[in-house]
Write a structure and sequence with these properties.
1 helix; alpha+beta; 106 residues
């Protein structure tokens, strides 16, 4: 078997590089199209904790306010039995591991 001509080898390598670059460009365009047409949030558990706060928990009872206040809304957590001091005071932005979603608050 005789060796290939060096000029022919360079030309074949150049052609192979161009084809590879073209295929990579097509692949990148295809991935960008897939990202643009993908669902806005394909992962159902992503940002799940945002809805798991005391504001949406069935154990949280909001504190009734007599006057309009600019302070953060407060409530009482009634998940566990009260202590001597009563039920714990919670902000609506708080979170704990005992959260149970209240469908009426969402």
């Amino acid at each position: 078997m005789r060796p290939l001509d060096p000029d022919l080898m360079r030309e074949m390598q150049h052609l192979l590089n161009r084809v590879t670059a073209s295929m990579l460009d097509e692949l990148a365009d295809h991935e960008q199209t897939d990202e643009a047409t993908a669902a806005p949030n394909p992962d159902p558990w992503k940002h799940r904790s945002r809805m798991m706060s005391c504001a949406t928990c069935m154990y949280c009872v909001p504190k009734v306010r007599d006057v309009e206040s600019t302070a953060a809304p407060l409530g009482r957590c009634r998940r566990h039995a009260p202590t001597i001091a009563g039920y714990p005071v919670v902000f609506f932005t708080d979170f704990c591991g005992d959260h149970k979603l209240d469908e009426n608050k969402t």
